[in-house]
Design brief:
The protein has twelve helices and 14 strands. By secondary structure, it is of the alpha+beta class. The chain starts with 23 loop residues before the first helix and ends in a 5-residue tail after the last strand.
């Protein structure tokens, strides 16, 4: 995989990697080179605009987004990004105009209505934003960001009780919603006793932990849902999945959600019993579902320290046909960060199922584990059967961070052995039983849902 993903010969794929993930100047330099090779790709200008925006060079960011729109007048991501850049530079009327254009092109995107509502609010036109945020909540009823937006609007127009209710509900969904907590403080009201789980947390007792010698490997504690809450004022702790189809003629971005689980695994390269990390991803607009399991490898015949199993479930009429290739997996510190590839080898096992074996070389292993533990975003490049290229970016979010921390802690306590866990959870066959990998026998997976089913 080398240092990263570079400009594909057909000009559709640009994902560059830097040792310093916030090295935006080098990012801009590479995007400059890409644009010099092919200045007809709207995606390149949007990516460079995001790098400028990360440096707070909003005028340059806006110029790049404008160029992308000139190339592709229907590119919603360019309008949305320019709207946010206008908002960040306090040009809220122009932000409103761009959000309006996105709504014309994509009238069912909840985050855009919330974005325009927030722009109205920042422009001193709070009442005009109320219909937009109401529409956003019709499309996504439990969006903490939209509830926070509406709370701010209600507070501004004098509907104190309604503002308090929205702030409290936003905090019940996302306890880290700082703006809502500040709103309640302004109104002289405590957060109250709203259910912080919003009814989506598995509150069943934690299973007993079986012991092996002196080591214990408990499953992670029940946690909060990681449903996405996109919006122009979205907090970094709760972000949606982003799936970007990098079609040069019509790049598209779709939002989804991820639910993190701890997983009990056994057999084959899993060893007798161990725990692992599982992410279940769904992109509703595409009916796209993906899951992956990250586990330790206990089979000495497989030259990998850890394994990532990727399973895709797509509708029969999926526009891309199927997922034909997964080149690898990257980690990034933030949504706009340039990913660092995990060292390893990706193979297709059967239709819809791929394995990535992470390198067992000491230096690679240490670096891979550091990236998995410390970085906040997964970036997985895909190639569809129709040769379209895709990047799917998956956030850990705070709940995912806790899953990773707990499972890694269990692995460290049981280094060299199996992590024993309770076996009462329902058993489901892993997709990897469809075909052995490098001679490894099929195995079973037992899951413990920690965020509640969607």
């Amino acid at each position: 995989m080398g240092d990263g993903y570079h400009l594909h010969p057909d000009g559709t794929w640009l994902r560059l990697t830097f040792k310093n993930k916030r090295d935006y100047d080098h990012a801009i330099a590479d995007f400059n080179k890409a644009i010099s090779l092919d200045s007809t790709q709207a995606l390149f200008f949007v990516n460079r605009g995001e790098a400028f925006g990360s440096k707070k060079d909003y005028s340059l960011a806006i110029a790049d987004y404008t160029k992308a729109i000139e190339i592709n007048p229907k590119y919603t991501k360019a309008y949305r990004s320019r709207a946010r850049a206008y908002g960040d530079s306090d040009n809220h009327d122009r932000a409103i105009a761009d959000f309006t254009k996105v709504i014309e092109l994509d009238p069912k995107d909840a985050s855009t209505y919330n974005g325009r509502a927030w722009a109205y609010f920042k422009a001193g036109k709070a009442a005009q934003g109320l219909p937009d945020v109401e529409r956003s909540l019709e499309l996504r009823p439990n969006d903490a960001n939209a509830l926070d937006t509406r709370g701010n609007i209600f507070e501004t127009i004098g509907r104190k009780d309604d503002a308090i209710a929205d702030y409290r509900k936003a905090l019940s969904i996302n306890p880290d919603m700082k703006g809502s907590a500040e709103g309640l403080a302004r109104l002289g009201t405590a957060p109250g006793n709203a259910d912080p789980t919003n009814g989506r947390v598995d509150l069943s007792p934690r299973p007993a932990v079986a012991k092996q010698g002196k080591a214990e490997a408990p499953l992670p504690a029940p946690d909060q849902s990681t449903n996405p809450r996109p919006g122009s004022n979205a907090p970094p702790a709760l972000q949606p999945v982003h799936l970007i189809e990098e079609d040069p003629s019509n790049p598209k971005e779709y939002l989804g959600q991820v639910v993190w689980r701890s997983v009990q695994v056994s057999g084959g390269y899993y060893g007798q019993k161990d725990i692992a990390i599982r992410g279940d991803i769904e992109v509703p607009d595409l009916k796209f579902k993906m899951s992956f399991i990250i586990s330790r490898n206990h089979d000495s015949s497989v030259p990998a320290s850890h394994l990532a199993e990727l399973t895709f479930i797509l509708p029969p009429d999926f526009s891309g046909g199927s997922v034909e290739k997964v080149p690898g997996m990257l980690m990034a510190s933030n949504e706009q960060g340039h990913g660092t590839p995990l060292a390893g080898l990706a193979v297709k096992v059967t239709d819809g199922f791929f394995l990535i074996g992470l390198s067992n070389v000491d230096a690679d292993r240490s670096r891979n584990l550091q990236l998995l533990k410390e970085d906040s975003w997964f970036s997985v490049p895909l190639v569809y059967a129709n040769n379209n290229r895709v990047i799917i970016s998956i956030p850990k979010n705070e709940a995912g961070d806790r899953v990773f921390n707990d499972v890694f802690a269990a692995w460290e306590r049981t280094a060299g052995g199996d992590a024993k866990v309770d076996t009462k959870a329902d058993t489901a066959k892993s997709a990897s039983t469809a075909q052995p990998f490098l001679g490894v026998e099929p195995k079973t997976v037992k899951t413990k849902t920690i965020h509640g089913d969607r």
